[in-house]
Amino acid sequence: MPESPSEPFVTLSEFADHINAPSYATDAKWKTKLQEVLDAALESVEEKVGPLGDAARTERVYATGRSLVLGATHLESVTSVVDPHGNTVTINENTDVNHLSGIVEIPRATKGSWRVTYRVVQDKASLRLAVKIIGEHLWETQRGSREGARGAMMGQAASDGDGHLRGFAIPRRAAQLIQPFVKLPGIA
Length: 188
Description:
By secondary structure, the chain is of the alpha+beta class. Helices cover about 35% and strands about 15% of the residues. The strands form two sheets. A three-stranded antiparallel β-sheet has the order 1-6-3, with no helix packed on it. The chain has a three-stranded antiparallel β-sheet with strand order 2-5-4. Helix 2 crosses helix 4 and helix 4 (about 125-145) packs antiparallel against helix 6.
C-alpha cells in the first residue's frame, strides 16, 4: 500500500499550466473536470510503471526460490523484509537487491507471503511529462476540437498540429517517455 505523499506527483496547477489553461485549476466550473482527467492520466501511468513518487510502499509477495520479485522497478531502497512467520530478515542492499529490476534475494526459501517495504525512484521528469501528455490527450478528446471534427467528417486522421496523429489510447510521445520504467508483464 502506498503512503500518501505530501504533494501529488503532478499537481492540478502544473497540469493546468501544461494545457495552457492555468485559470482552470482554480475555476470551480473546470477544476473538478480537470482533476478527473489528471487522475485518469496518473492511473494510466501507474498501471504501466507501478507507484509514482517516492513514498514508501509495503507489498506482499511470494518467493520464487530465493527471489522476491516486487511489483515495482527502479527501487531507491528496501527498508524492511519480513518472512511469512513474522521474522525480520536482514538483507544487504548492495548484494541482495537488484534495484533496477525490483528483485530481492533472500537467504533462505520459505513458502508463504513475504512482506517487503521499499521506496521507488519513480520521481522522474519524463514520467511527470508523460502524465501531462496523457492528461492533455484525454482533455482534448473530451472537449473535442473544430479541426478534429472537420477532419473526421472529411475522413482525415486528427493531428495535434505538429504532425502527430491523435486517437491512440496513450500518445506515442508519452509511451516513449514511460518505456524505460514499464513493469515486466505479469508483475503486479
